[in-house]
Amino acid sequence: MTSLIIKITSLPTRIFRSIFPQKAGTELEENTILVKDNNNEDVIMSTPEKLRGLSDIYRFFRKNTTPIYFVSPTAYNILGLGQWIQGFKYITHFDSFDGGHFRVTNPEQNTEREFQSMEDMVNYLLSHKESVDLFQRNGGKGKILTVMFDEKTEEIAKQLGVDIALPPAELRTRLDSKIVTTQLANEAGVASAPNIVDVKASSYQELSALAAESKLGEKLVVQTPYGDSGKTTYFISNEADWDKVADKVVGETLKVMKYINHIPGTVEAVATRCGTMVGPLQTDITGYQELTPYKGGWCGNDIFPEILQGAQRDKIISMVKAMGDKLYETGYRGTFCFDYLVDTDDGEVYLGEINPRISGASPLTNLVTSKYGGIPLMLFHLLEFMDVDFEIDVDEIQKRWSDFGSWTQLVLKHTTDEVRSITKAPQSGIWRMLDDGNITFVRNSIDWNNVSDGQDAFYIRVYNAGDYAYLGADMGILVARGRMQTDDRQLLPRAHQWVRAINAEFEYKALDELEIPYIPTDNVRKMI
C-alpha cells in the first residue's frame, strides 16, 4: 500500500520532469524525499545545505560517516565525546581502562621506545600498524585530533590519507610563543599585566635595569617563549633567585612581567567563522606540593558558576572573544585556552597566556557544556574542520551554560624525587570516600557523568603496574563534584583526603641493581 501511495504522489513530479528535464549535475532541492528500491521504510531527508542551529548539528554528528580519531597518550582530554559523534575512536599509548573502553585502541609496544616528546609519541601511535589497520577498516579516510603534533605528524597523516582537524603545526608553534601572544593581544586591545617582551638579560643587574626602565618593580615574573604547566615561568626578586634559574633564561628571548597578587584562571573557547564561542570560566589549581613538584605548576581546575560575577566576568568574556577573533584573522580556527589573571589588589583583569590547542581545560569544559548546556564545546571546533557549512548564534548558544553544577579535576603528579617500579596502581572508574577518610572502588566506568554525589569521584589511571614512577610523572586524574579549593586558594580538607587516599593505592618497589628504567624527557612528561 505504501509503495502504491508513493508511486501515485510522485506521478506529477515524473510527468513534470519528462517535460522539463533537470540539468545534469543539478543538486536535489533541500528536503527532497529519497526512497531506496525495495525498502519502503528507508525514507530519509537529505542533509541541509547549511546547518542552522543545534538540531541540525545534533543530526549531523549523529549521522556522521567520517571517522574521527583522537590520538594522544591518554583519552582524557576529550573523554566522552564519542557519545555525541558516530564513528569516534581513541588511539592511546596508555591503557587506562584495561581494554574495557570499546572506543579505545592501544597499539602494542613491542620494543622499549624512548620518546623524545609528546609529538614523538603521537607520531609513533599514528604510524603504528594497528592504527593503520584501523584506518583501513574504516575506509582509509578520516579526521585526526590530538593535543600536540608537529610537521612530521602532518607528513604521516598525508601519507595515510587522513586529515588533521587542527590548525597547521607551524601556525600553532608561532602562536604558542608567549611573546607573540602578547603582541597579538596588544593589537586586539586585550591587556596583559605590565610587561616588556622580546628582551634578553645576561645578568641580574641587566634584568633589574630593564625592569626599572619600564617601572615593573623589584618582584618580577620571567618567562621564556615556550613551555607549559609553569615549567618555564620563574619568579625573581633578588640575585639569589636569578642564580637558581640563570642557566634557563640566559640567551633566551624573554617576557618580563610585574609581579601581581592574583587569582589565576582559564577559559576554553572556540574561534569560528560565526564568531568566538566562550566556555565556562575555571579557576586554576596550581603549585600544591601534594600534587606537583613544580612551583606554580598547574595541577587542576575548579569550575563553578559563581566565579567572578558582574563586570569582571563580562570583561574576561569580552577579552576572550576579542582574542579569538584576532586569532581567526591570523588563520587560526578552533579551540584555544585563554589563561587570565585577576589582580586581587585592584580587581583588574589581564591576559596570562594562550594555549592554541586542546588543553587540560578541555575535560571540564566539555563536561559542563554537554551536561548543562546540551552540547560539548568541542563539537563547534570539529564543525570548522568538517565538510559542512554552518550558521549559528554564538551568543545564544553560549547562554545555555550560564548556570551549572560545580566540578573539580585534580592532576596527581609523582612528587617524590626517586625512580621506582610500580607494582600496584588504582584502576580507572568510580571511587567512593568513606567516613574514615579511606576510599573504596565502586565500579568500572568510562564516564565521569556517573559520579553521583560529593562522596564519589571518577579516577582515570595513567601509569599502571609495571611502569616507572619518576619526579613529575602524571600518575592519574581525579574528577569530582564540588570544589576542592577555597576562594583564597587553599586546598579544602576533602582535596587532601582524596590525594592521600589515591596515592595510598599505589605500591612500589626499588629498582633492581641492573635495572635501567626509561624516564621520559621533560618534553614528554606531560601526558594530558
Automatic annotation (TrEMBL):
This is Biotin carboxylase. GO terms for molecular function: acetyl-CoA carboxylase activity; ATP binding; metal ion binding. The keyword Coiled coil does not apply. Keywords: ATP-binding, Ligase, Nucleotide-binding. Its EC number is 6.4.1.2. The lineage of its organism: Bacteria, Pseudomonadati, Pseudomonadota, Gammaproteobacteria, Oceanospirillales. The keyword Endoplasmic reticulum does not apply. It is an enzyme of class 6 (ligase). It holds the Pfam family CPSase_L_D2. It comes from the Bacteria.
